[in-house]
Design a protein that fits this description.
Order of helices and strands: HHHHHEEH
Number of domains: 2
Strand content: under 5%
Shape: globular
Helix content: 40-55%
Oligomer: single chain
Mean pLDDT: 84
Largest sheet: 2 strands, antiparallel
Number of helices: 6
């Protein structure tokens, strides 16, 4: 019999994920080089010690009852382009890189001066795409 896992989705630790992603970028490392081991302990401690987190000093973490922390990394420009191309396909449109670039350029990125990561990921692609098609 296969093991059964419960899944809990949370924004807890998001600041640490973003900071680690930025640190990798500033060091000239690719976001895809980030591994779970780079974030897992950091996330566990961060959410355990954050009094704004729903996991603040919880026994779930204290007693090592959480098997995995799965970080969702911030999306870069190229990922937003990929989301836009996928949304075009989902709408039955021919994917168009020029349109995808226009949509991706219209989003807000951070840090402000470098525009590395999308502030909202791909959440607004669906609503913005109709302006360009």
């Amino acid at each position: 019999m296969l093991p059964v896992y419960d899944l809990l989705h949370s924004n807890a630790g998001a600041d640490r994920i973003v900071q680690t992603s930025l640190d990798f970028w500033k060091a000239g490392r690719n976001r895809d080089e980030l591994e779970l081991k780079d974030l897992e302990t950091l996330l566990s401690l961060s959410v355990f010690n954050d009094n704004q987190s729903g996991f603040f000093h919880t026994s779930l973490i204290d007693k090592n009852l959480v098997d995995f922390f799965v970080p969702f990394l911030p999306l870069e420009y190229e990922h937003v382009v990929q989301c836009t191309m996928a949304e075009m396909r989902a709408r039955g449109l021919q994917p168009d890189r020029d349109v995808a670039d226009k949509v991706a350029k219209d989003l807000v990125y951070f840090p402000k001066s470098e525009r590395v990561f999308s502030v909202k990921g791909c959440k607004t692609i669906e609503s913005k795409l109709h302006y360009y098609t």
